[in-house]
Amino acid sequence: MTTAQGARARARQEITAAIKEAARRQLAAEGAAKLSLRAVARELGMVSSALYRYFPSRDELLTALIIDAYDSLGEAAERARDAAADVPPRARWTAVCEAVRGWALAHPHEYALIYGSPVPGYSAPETTVPAAARVGMVFIGILRDAHQGPGLAAPALPADLRPEAARMAADLAPDLPPEAAAALVAAWAQLFGLVGFELFGQFNRVVEDRETFFRHAADRLAESTGLGGP
């Protein structure tokens, strides 16, 4: 790459970052449904035609923001997992849950973008899947470590759920038993339900000591997946 090409690449990266940052400010002020390329261009002092060279449509800009949010959340979960590498799997699980909550409280509008109401007229493409899977892969890894080490004690499945649980295990984590796969999916949904309830105000006048409540609930979710230990 020549010096000129390198300078152009850096300039493109800087402008792309500025566009996304302006879009995040618009998300905070107006919500994802009202995201507008023209409004972003106006804030940056660009003509719309220039911005379209970076993001040809609103949906492409939304996709970039969604991938960034999932990646940022995934990085937070992975850091918490790595920092808790020397503790038992159940404590590692709780540490990751707390990191997910911490990220959501620090990035409420980005959390709403990926776990809030769907944006009318927008359908997330397959390119968002790898980033969206990062948190789930962290939890799968924790269960895998426990399964290969001290073992899992996931609750037994009713007969009519076993085929679906086996399918989930085959798709998500073939080296985990179906009981663990089904419990993991349920715990994953409940975790983000807990975070969403806190972030979107459903706990107002219900839960006051939310940090302690969340830590307890996250530990119970760990137990529900078969992770043992105190």
TrEMBL record:
The keyword Transcription regulation applies. Residues 13-73 form the HTH tetR-type domain. Residues 36-55 bind DNA. It holds the Pfam family TetR_C_33. InterPro entries: Homeodomain-like_sf, HTH-type_TetR-like_transc_reg, HTH_TetR, MT1864/Rv1816-like_C, Tet_transcr_reg_TetR-rel_C_sf. Keywords: DNA-binding, Transcription, Transcription regulation. PANTHER family: HTH-TYPE TRANSCRIPTIONAL REGULATOR RUTR (PTHR30055), HTH-TYPE TRANSCRIPTIONAL REGULATOR RV1816 (PTHR30055:SF243). This is TetR/AcrR family transcriptional regulator. It comes from Streptomyces tricolor.
